[in-house]
Amino acid sequence: MDYPYRILVFGSICSGKTFFVKKLHAKLELPVVHLDDWFWYGEWENIGKQSLLENVCKFIDENEYWIIDGNYAVIRDTIWQHCTHIYYFHNALPILIARAVKRSFCADRTGVPVKVRENSNLREPAQELIYEILRYHFRKKPGDMWFCKSVLSMNGNLRMVKGSDLVIQKEIQLLIKGDIV
User: Fold this and answer.
1) DSSP structure class, residue 80
2) pTM of the prediction?
3) How many structural domains compose the chain?
């Protein structure tokens, strides 16, 4: 079955975005962009947000349906009106910090962008992840919440999700059944 979805998933570091997208991709088989994989390369160098935006715009022009995973405001603010579904992932601060510690010691380094993983031995140290979580929580989250409110006020299809295994499975089931329009 073809799923006519254009899905954006954004939110805090360690909130479950990428886990959700991997599970969603396995069910829907839509093309996926992990923005961190496009943005970061080598020894944590990046291509710049404008280049990332250009690459994403080209991708959505070339693909009718897709899933985009990542929290880059320049992308989100530009493409959200093309989305059929938007998911905002958030969790309580202690949960995010616990996940950061677990992720920093995880042998498979799943949080590290592919190109960085292939071209360096760098891991995401727990203190850097926790710093980014706190920075997000106190500086960026208010902007994301404002974005969510503005999308919802325009009758946008935005779901606010606390990324746990059970909630993620439920969201995927609702999406596949068409209960989320």
Assistant:
1) G
2) 0.87
3) 1
Round to whole Å and give the CA distance between 181 and 172: 13
Boundaries of domain holding 143: 6-177
Number of C-beta neighbours around residue 3 at 10 A: 16
Give 88-103 as a 3 state SS string.
EECCCHHHHHHHHHHH
Q: Three-state secondary structure along 6-43?
A: EEEEEECCCCCHHHHHHHHHHHHCCCEEEHHHHHEECC
Q: How many CA atoms lie within 13 A of 181 on its CB side?
A: 1
pLDDT tens-place string over residues 61-111 = 999 999 999 989 899 888 998 999 999 999 999 999 998 888 777 655 556
Round to whole Å and give the CA distance between 124 and 107.
Answer: 11
Question: Exposure string (b/e) for 67-95, b if CB count within 10 Å is 16 or more?
Answer: bbbbbbeebbeebbeebebbbbbbbebeb
CATH of the domain at 89: 3.40.50.300
CB contact burial 140-170 (16+ within 10 A = b; e otherwise): eeeebeebbeebeeeeeebeebebeeeebee
Task: Give the Å distances, CA to CA, from 1 to 4, 24, 25, 30, 73.
Answer: 10, 14, 13, 11, 32
